[in-house]
Amino acid sequence: MRDENLPGFRNCTLDGICFVQQVVYILRVACNQPPETQVVEGIKLVELVNLSLVILHCLCRDRELLEMVVYYLLYPENLIVRESKILLPIYALNESHDEVVKKSAISVIEAAVHHPKMAAFFNENHGLINGLQHFARSVNPVIGNLAKESLKTIMLGGAMPRSVPPPYLRAKEKANTVPSLEVSASSTALPSAVPSPAQCSDRMNGESAMWQEPMEGAGEQIPEVGLSSFQLYE
């Protein structure tokens, strides 16, 4: 997914449900499936989880979409998996036995902490901080550097602006250039129209004023192994 195509997803909707909310909803439904479930509507569950995470990771490269990803990941109904309060990427990281899914989950986490709200969420999670500190000492340079960068981002509160924004972010973008995600009519349920970040977040509006440059590193680093050796529950 090319960076210049990402802005088209900002206003992409289906029946009033924005693209980001649809992806997070699909991830939530997949994570809430019974352990014995292998296939959902003809799609392997592990592939459904991984694809949702990969899409979210890509969307995090755009500042406005990153804000939406964080908003919907932290929305109360999306923090519940099987009666436990937990962030969806964290759940996927802990529960999946698939190495590819673990890599995708870590990628979303690394990208999401570039947002101040998500950085604060992780900063309050001592299990995650301890785990990142452990992996910062890893003999694997990729994992060690990723852990160090994640910790630095969290300690800085998430905001890491680049000195020069990409040209496509300087120009006014056209909306609705990308078709919305299709949802099967046979799905057991559809996501309710959760208020958008702009509709129900004076705090987010205040924070958005400081977001004038694209994020350094958000959605760019992909680690090679998972963080499954420690618990990340809130």
UniProtKB/TrEMBL annotation:
Recorded superkingdom: Eukaryota
Compositional bias annotation for Polar residues: 180-190
Protein name as annotated: Adaptin_N domain-containing protein
Region span, Disordered: 180-234
Gene3D superfamilies the UniProt entry points to: Leucine-rich Repeat Variant
InterPro entries: ARM-like (IPR011989)
